Every structure is written in C-alpha cells, then in structure tokens.
C-alpha cells in the first residue's frame, strides 16, 4: 500500500523538479549569452531564429514526456511494474522514430522556417548552419523526453534533476569551447547543443537501464496499448498546438496595439514564464500522484492528491503575485532601457501579477488530466479555450487597446480551467469504476 501523501512529501518531490525546470530554462539563455559575448549581431539573430524553430518543433512533441508520466504512474499505481517498464520502452521507441523522421525531413523543415521568417541572407545562412548541426540531436532529445517523463512518473525527481544538470552543463561547456575558443559561430552552438543532447541521453539510459531492458516483448508490442498510447499522444499534441497558437496570438495582438506595447508585453511575459516554470513543478507532481491514484482505481486517493498539491501550488502562486507587485517595478526599471517599453511594462504589471493566481488552477488541472491520460478532455478544453480567447481578444482589444489584450489573456486561463473542470466529476467516477487498472485508458465521456 502506498504511504499517505503529505505536504512534506509533495515538497520533497517538487523541489528537484523546480531546479530541473530552472536548468531547462537556462539552455537557451546559455546559447544566447555565449553568442552575444563572442559573436556578431548577425550570429545572435541567426541563433535566435533557428532556436525558435527548434522550440516549436520540440514543444509540439512534448507529449512524449507528458503521456509517459501519466501512463507510467498509472501502471505503478496498479502495481504493474512490468507494464511500467513497457511504457518506457514504447515511448523511447516512438521518440527515436520521430527523431529519425525529423532528420529525414530536415531540409524541408529548414526551408519552411526560413521562408516564414524572411530574414536577411546573412542571418539565414547562420540559422541554416545552426540548424544543420543541432538537428542531429533530434533523436536523442526526443528519447530523453520519454526517459524524463518516465522518471517523473516513477517519482524519481532527483534523477530527473541530475539528467537536466548533465544536459545543461555539457551544453554550456561545449558552447564556450566551440564558439569562444574555436570560433565556430552558430554552427558551433548547434553542434554543442546536439552533443549535449546525446550525452544526456546516454546518462538517462544509464539511470533507467534496468527498467528499459524489458524482456516481455509481448507486453511492449501489445497492439491495444500502442493504439491507446498513440491516441493519447495525438490529443495532447493538438492541445499543445492550441496553446502555442494562443500565445502567438497574444504577441500578435500586442503588436497591433503598437511597438511599445509589444515590447512591454514581451518583458512581462518573462515574469509569467518564471512563475510558470516553478508552479509547473507542482503540476508535475500532481501528474504522478493523480496517475497513480487513477491506476489504483482509488477516487479518495485521487481527491486527496489533487487537494494537497493544489493547496501548496496556490500558496506559491500567491507569493509570486505579491513579489511581482512589490518587486516588479524595480526589476523593470533595471532591465528595460527604452522609456516607452518600460512605461508599457510598468502600466500593465498588475495584469501580469494576477496570472499566477489565475493560471495555477489551469496548470494543476492540466497535471490532473495529463496524469490520468485523458486526452479527449485535454483536446476539447485546449481547443475551446484557445477559440474563446481569440474571440474575446477580437472584441476587447480594438476597444480597450492593451488593457483589452491583457484582459482577454487573463480570461484564457479561466477558460482553460473551466473547460477541464467540467470533466472533473466524471473523471472521479471513472477513477472508481471497476475494470483493468492499467491501459487501455478509460476516457471520461
């Protein structure tokens, strides 16, 4: 029987995830800092352009981490370690397959990306050089997503932190060497990141080597479970793309208001990113705990897991709100030199400060439904909230300018939480329903 979940245990699981999230966020920062220190403005622009392309591609395949966490936790909750190992093998094979497909399609992906951005020729040349070396890390990073998701689902959050430290540490060292010492420019940045991704994969495989070498091939190749995995991944991918579209719309809506508004919004978006990275740690713990409770068919355990993790997450969200209101002006004054952009950021800081309190409900519900692999609910809520957000922005932004842009953005979090919250009662009933605890997933209707 699992030990009773406590707030101390939640914090013990969450702190390594918080640090792992911070380490994840530093990858792009290190690339930018090294290129800014040793390269030209053209080199920096080239890395930024290509990095956006990779961020979009890899975020689109984030389901490899998300679904693996939920399915592994459900199998462990059901007491089926053999199925938990099979989840890891299936996800790793799927990640490797997608990574190889990206290598084959790399010329087409690069051509489309360059056509969409329409940058200067010298910038495009640098972006192509970065892309050409970093793309070789695609199979490694996608398999690492599967390994990371499995470690989280198994509650091995310290191992997850170690994996991220290896990835970012090797990346930082190689970036400095390839660019600072060897003067390889954007191509060196891409090569350093790709090598770091393969190094991290090797370390990750060592962490899970005993579980990865599953001998039960029939379980790994179970067609019903593979179909359920692909269906869940499809729905999570659609949900993720809907969120990506919503954030792109936010940036575009600010641009329609004016350059100062766009710049100020971009500054405030970094505040939101910081709080989201930290609060996501509790959503990740919720994924694990909700997944185990769902796999054990224990609605009481599910409700307790959701209540305790959410209480702590709301406490940290309130702390972020207070910190942003009290210290935000000081940070903005220190980092934004342009007067118009600085004034715009200061004017709309109160809107930004509310995001952690509004967003934490949506992030926690994401964790609940990802952990229980309820892809249909995630897809419906994700698409519906994005559509409602765009409709709200089209109504408010023309009338109220940037205040309308931010009001619609805040309501997007309300729409996301309401959309998933509508499925909560049926999820609890499904958690208590009799039947085979592990896959195939029982979807709430």
Question: Domains counted in the coordinates: how many?
Answer: 2
The succession of helices and strands, N to C, reads HHHHHHHHHHHHHHHHHH
Radius of gyration: 22 Å
Q: Count the DSSP helices.
A: 18
How far apart are the termini? 30 Å
The biggest beta sheet, please?
A: none
Main structural class: mainly alpha
What is the residue-averaged pLDDT?
A: 86
Helix content: over 70%
State the shape. Answer: globular
Structure write-up:
With 445 residues, the chain is mainly α. The protein has 2 domains: 8-221, no CATH class; 229-445, no CATH class. The chain has 18 helices and no strands. The protein has helices at 7-38, 41-60, 63-77, 81-117, 121-134, 138-153, 157-181, 185-207, 209-212, 217-220, 223-257, 259-295, 299-335, 339-347, 349-371, 375-400, 402-421, 424-431. Helix 5 (121-134) runs parallel beside helix 8. The longest helix has 37 residues, at 81-117.
Give me the secondary-structure topology:
Elements (H helix, E strand, L loop, with lengths): L6 H32 L2 H20 L2 H15 L3 H37 L3 H14 L3 H16 L3 H25 L3 H23 L1 H4 L4 H4 L2 H35 L1 H37 L3 H37 L3 H9 L1 H23 L3 H26 L1 H20 L2 H8 L14
Short description:
The chain has 445 residues and is mainly α. The chain has 18 helices and no strands.
Task: Fill in the keyword field for this structure.
445 residues, mainly alpha
């Amino acid at each position: 029987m699992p030990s009773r979940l406590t707030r101390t245990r939640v914090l013990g699981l969450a702190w390594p995830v918080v640090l792992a999230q911070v380490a994840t966020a530093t990858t792009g920062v290190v690339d930018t800092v090294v290129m800014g220190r040793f390269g030209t403005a053209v080199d920096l622009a080239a890395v930024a352009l290509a990095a956006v392309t990779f961020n979009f591609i890899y975020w689109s395949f984030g389901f490899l981490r998300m679904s693996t966490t939920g399915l592994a936790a459900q199998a462990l909750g059901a007491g089926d370690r053999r199925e938990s190992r099979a989840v890891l093998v299936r996800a790793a094979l799927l990640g490797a397959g997608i990574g190889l497909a990206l290598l084959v399609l790399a010329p087409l992906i690069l051509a489309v990306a360059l056509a969409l951005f329409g940058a200067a020729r010298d910038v495009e040349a640098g972006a192509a050089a970065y892309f050409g070396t970093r793309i070789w890390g695609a199979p490694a990073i996608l398999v690492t997503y599967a390994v990371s998701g499995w470690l989280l689902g198994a509650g091995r959050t310290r191992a997850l932190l170690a994996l991220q430290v290896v990835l970012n540490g090797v990346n930082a060292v190689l970036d400095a060497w390839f660019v600072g010492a060897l003067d390889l420019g954007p191509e060196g940045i891409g090569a350093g990141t790709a090598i770091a991704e393969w190094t991290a994969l090797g370390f990750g495989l060592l962490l899970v080597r005993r579980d990865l070498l599953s001998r039960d091939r029939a379980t790994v190749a179970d067609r019903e479970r593979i179909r359920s995995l692909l269906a869940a991944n499809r729905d999570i991918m659609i949900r993720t793309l809907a969120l990506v579209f919503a954030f792109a719309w936010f940036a575009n809506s600010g641009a329609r208001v004016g350059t100062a508004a766009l710049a100020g919004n971009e500054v405030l978006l970094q505040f939101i990113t910081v709080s989201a990275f930290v609060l996501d740690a509790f959503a990740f713990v919720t994924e694990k705990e909700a997944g185990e409770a769902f796999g054990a068919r224990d609605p009481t355990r599910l409700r307790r897991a959701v209540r305790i993790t959410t209480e702590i997450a709301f406490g940290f969200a309130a702390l972020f709100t207070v910190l942003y209101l009290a210290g935000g002006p000081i940070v903005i004054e220190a980092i934004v030199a342009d007067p118009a952009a600085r004034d715009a950021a200061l004017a709309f800081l109160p809107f930004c400060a509310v995001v952690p309190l509004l967003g934490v409900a949506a992030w926690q519900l994401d964790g609940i439904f990802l952990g229980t692999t309820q892809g249909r609910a995630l897809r419906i809520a994700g698409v519906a909230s994005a559509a409602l957000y765009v409709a709200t922005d089209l109504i408010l932004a023309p009338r109220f300018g940037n205040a309308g842009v931010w009001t619609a953005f805040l309501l997007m979090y309300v729409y996301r939480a309401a959309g998933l919250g509508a499925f909560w009662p049926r999820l609890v009933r499904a958690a208590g329903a009799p039947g085979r605890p592990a896959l195939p997933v029982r979807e709430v209707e």
